[in-house]
């Protein structure tokens, strides 16, 4: 659906907007990467064990492999089983084999006696403590962790460090993932200058680009920094025509002012607008569409609005296009430290801080105020039309620091 730039159009609810944004995305190609390069990606197919772990019954302790029925001994030492160097023979009646953690249980033995409860003199091993209480003590059974053919990581799950390790143990050296996304980021506004330049007059350091790059640092993206565009229609259209990316993120110029050019420039460059203006605070003027091969996400210029919309839309879009089954941010529940009034029709994300286990709204909530955002450790979520709530009530939050 195309929407024109009238301000009378209703605000799209956040969940509906996200569903429409995701519908604009096309799947990206998969690739196979060595384990160490796959961290942080999402599995593009089920990752299935090529081996059983443990591959045999192993000792869980350093001690002696014994036959439980032989206790209390004494026992005759006939050899050693170490991890990677199993004992080749069989433990017979009255015999034992020195064994170490991770070593294969020798044939004939059924229990491990820990060395703290045994004494050895030459080839004679005697019990000094209570000894194992039951047959089979201190053994890790074959397949305790997983078996050949088990799914270790399901398609769409993120490759966390533990999942990389389980895949390695499952015998895999390379993993199927979606390719890295190319994300172009461009700021708009005549007032903006690159950060780090001594300033006077009406100039403002461009902070959204660096903030967004930092927000994507843990995601599988290559960032294309398209810098700052002036508030000039022709320059903006020309820049948009050249975009070669999977996602184009713009900040600023999204609202209704005479210099808010992103929407008209997008269409003049051959792109299409899918929706504009959502029931969110901060972040109302966000827009989405397509341009060339890219999904376009037009974020508002106000820095806090850009942060909140990037949290709720840009990061989830990247996760979804990278194959995530669950691309949404992870919400948590906290206990409110103060009363909050009823909310209006815009879903609200309040900058907040945790003190003594309770969350409090952090000062003024103006969407230009970066220091408030920088000091906040969470956002309190107020659903659209939520009733008033009181100190002590549970509240949904997004942890941001
Ligand atoms: N008449 C109306 N005015 C506004 C409305 C409205 O509905 N009617 N919506 C307001 C809301 S809500 C927001 S949010 C802002 C967002 O507007 P834009 O996306 O057009 O943002 P700009 O006007 O370009 O900039 C807003 C503000 O942020 C500063 N900015 C912009 N880009 C950056 C950047 N890359 N780094 C740092 N700071 C940036 C810019 O200087 C402005 O101060 O519109 C309201 N107006
Ligand atoms: O909704 Mo705007 O994003 O408040 O400042």
From TrEMBL:
Keywords: Magnesium, Metal-binding, Molybdenum, Molybdenum cofactor biosynthesis, Transferase
Required co-factors: Mg(2+)
Residue ranges occupied by any MoaB/Mog domain in the UniProt entry: 184-320
Superkingdom, taxonomy of origin: Bacteria
Top-level class of the enzyme under EC nomenclature: transferase
Keyword ATP-binding (UniProt): no
Reaction equation(s) it catalyzes: adenylyl-molybdopterin + molybdate = Mo-molybdopterin + AMP + H(+)
Matching SUPFAM superfamilies: MoeA C-terminal domain-like, MoeA N-terminal region -like, Molybdenum cofactor biosynthesis proteins
Biochemical pathway: Cofactor biosynthesis; molybdopterin biosynthesis
Enzyme Commission number(s): 2.10.1.1
Pfam family, one: MoCF_biosynth
InterPro entries: MoaB/Mog-like_dom_sf, MoaB/Mog_dom, MoeA-like, MoeA_C_domain_IV, MoeA_C_domain_IV_sf, MoeA_linker/N, MoeA_linker/N_sf
Family: Belongs to the MoeA family.
Its job: Catalyzes the insertion of molybdate into adenylated molybdopterin with the concomitant release of AMP.
Protein's name in the database: Molybdopterin molybdenumtransferase
Organism, as annotated: Sphingomonas oligophenolica
